[in-house]
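Our preliminary data section would be incomplete without showing what the modeling component actually yields. Below, a chain of 376 amino acids is followed by its predicted structure, encoded as tokens that our downstream tools consume directly.
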Amino acid sequence: MTKLLKWVLTLLIIYAAYNFFIKEREDTAINTVSEEIENSINQESITSFIQTLTRELNGLKSIFQDAQDFLPDWNVKEHSEDIPKPELETPKDYPFSIYNISLGDEQQKVEKSLGHPQRVTENEYGISWFTYHNNYHNFVMIGYDDNNKVAALYTNQDLIASSYGIKKGTKKEQVLDTLGEPLTELRKGLVSYKMAEDRDYEMFALEDSYVTVFFDKHENNTVTALQIISSSLEDNRKDFYVDGTENLKEGFEYQLFDLTNASRVNNNLNPLTWDEAVRETARKHSLDMAENNYFSHTNLEGESPFDRMLNDGIHYSMAGENLAYGQNSSVFAHEGLMNSMGHRENILQKDFASLGVGVAFNNDAQPYYTENFLTK
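Predicted structure:
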């Protein structure tokens, strides 16, 4: 679309210049081209030409404004061609697979099929999420154990296959009827962490694994994402919240960014670009909330997200902010944000162009998440 607009503007300028100089020739009756140009380029003529060009540009602007309902935004790239998903096979040795990958598969086998990861970041289990996708199409995160075997899987795209017939879009009632009673608490050491009654997910203990099925409240409570964690990996995590190391903080930040883009692609929107400067603004707000024990878009000095960005020298034409607190991972934070309408609208705002994510941990290792969206 951008190239088309450049051609239109170029042709408009040529057209305006042509009409202007033709009119000049008619008015002055100069015979040769060289004499016409020489006598036309004076201060009065240049002023007249600029006025003519301005009128033409304003006319073009009006046309595009009237047609904005069916033309793409000038500042938004056109959608890339859809990338086909793989043909999914019903798993044989385990109830669920993602991208035809199951727990216990060898990393070498996975990467022979998916290629090299786009990103590797630390997660709350003390291992890394290896993130695979093609411009955020066919998005999957995979964790490997010490033997280079799949120990964790996640996707929020249509890559879920199951011997139970459960897939993305399956209704919650069918999931519960099929998988039975979900867990209501998760025990860590001597402490049991109870799950919220109004949760937008259900966790099941299935064949030496914990399967968390996430539901989209805004899509009739249907399956929107799936996370599979091996029992050994979950049992090795001794606490619900883990120490907020620098690597984990950065891991949560990049994971939220990738999860956001995967959700945007699900909704036929362009991925956002990473903004390092905005990440720093987001980090400072997360740290301020963590250190001063509050949770709000307005900080203790009365500054809004927009004030904070401007104070950091970040200028924008539009901006927005999402906050989350208490979720023990980027996955749970993102799925929670997608089920909150205001936060969901920011994630799926077609006019946003970039995103910076900042995470900080309080003294109890509970993470605060700040997402700052903007268009410059």
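The chain has eleven helices and 15 strands. The mean pLDDT is 84. Preliminary results of this kind motivate Aim 1 of the renewal.
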